[in-house]
């Protein structure tokens, strides 16, 4: 029985793990070695669990992060905690996901939050992904329309720059006129001085 269990364990191991476990004489020793390698001792496990919990609590979906990337990142945290014996209910997971969304997702949060206890986590992610696709489409349509707005803005900006250039021309003309009048008054003063002499 022991030899059969050892054989099953050995067959499931990769080359590196097998190199460590092949010298174990009992299936229990193989199991203990694998457990220590992957989970560590009690102290290590508690540290890893604390770090995993902290990562879970601080999980937030970035404003420009895709739903698929957020889903992948969230699953990595949950799987890591699951290996350490930490389990969450579906309702807890769903609530955590929704409350981690940026404020732009307010309508989805309001719509899906009451369904956290009844819907699967996969359904929540699927709903968010559908909403993301809709948001992307709306942004693309806005950008297609945007050049018209941009052209109108440019036209109004050009008009204002023309007005400012006209006012600059007028001010330069005024300056030239004042310079001419100043020079003529200077000439008149010189003539008066000459006559007096």
The level of helicity is: over 70%
The string of secondary-structure elements, in order, is HHHHHHHH
Number of strands: 0
Give the total of domains: 2
- Total DSSP helices: 8
Protein name: UBN2 domain-containing protein
Biased composition (Acidic residues): 160-191
Region (Disordered): 147-197
Pfam family, one: Retrotran_gag_2
Task: Break the fold down into its secondary structure elements and pairings.
Layout: H1 2-11, H2 15-21, H3 27-39, H4 42-57, H5 67-83, H6 90-99, H7 106-112, H8 121-196
Helix pairs in contact: 4-5
Please describe what this structure looks like.
This protein is mainly α and 197 residues long. It folds into two domains: 1-39, no CATH class; 43-144. Helices cover 79% and strands 0% of the residues. It has eight helices and no strands. It has helices at residues 2-11, 15-21, 27-39, 42-57, 67-83, 90-99, 106-112, 121-196. Helix 4 (42-57) packs antiparallel against helix 5 (67-83). The chain is elongated. The N and C termini lie far apart (138 Å). The model has no long low-confidence stretch (mean pLDDT 79). Residues 147-159 have a biased composition (Basic and acidic residues). Residues 147-197 are annotated as: Disordered.
């Amino acid at each position: 029985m022991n030899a059969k269990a050892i054989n099953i364990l050995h067959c499931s191991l990769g080359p590196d793990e097998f190199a460590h476990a092949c010298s174990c004489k009992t299936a229990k020793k193989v199991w203990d070695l694998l457990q220590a390698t992957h989970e560590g001792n009690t102290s290590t496990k508690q540290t890893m669990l604390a770090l995993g919990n902290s990562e879970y609590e601080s999980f937030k979906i970035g404003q420009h992060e895709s739903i698929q990337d957020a889903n992948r990142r969230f699953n990595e945290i949950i799987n890591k905690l699951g290996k350490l014996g930490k389990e969450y209910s579906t309702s807890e997971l769903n609530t955590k996901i929704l409350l981690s969304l940026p404020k732009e997702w307010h309508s989805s949060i309001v719509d899906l939050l009451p369904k956290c206890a009844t819907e699967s986590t996969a359904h929540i992610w699927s709903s968010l992904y559908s909403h993301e696709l809709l948001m992307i489409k709306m942004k693309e349509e806005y950008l297609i329309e945007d050049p018209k707005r941009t052209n109108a803005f440019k036209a109004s900006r050009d008009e204002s720059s023309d007005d400012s250039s006209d006012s600059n021309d007028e001010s330069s003309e005024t300056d030239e006129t004042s310079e001419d009048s100043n020079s003529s008054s200077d000439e008149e003063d010189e003539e008066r001085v000459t006559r007096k002499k």
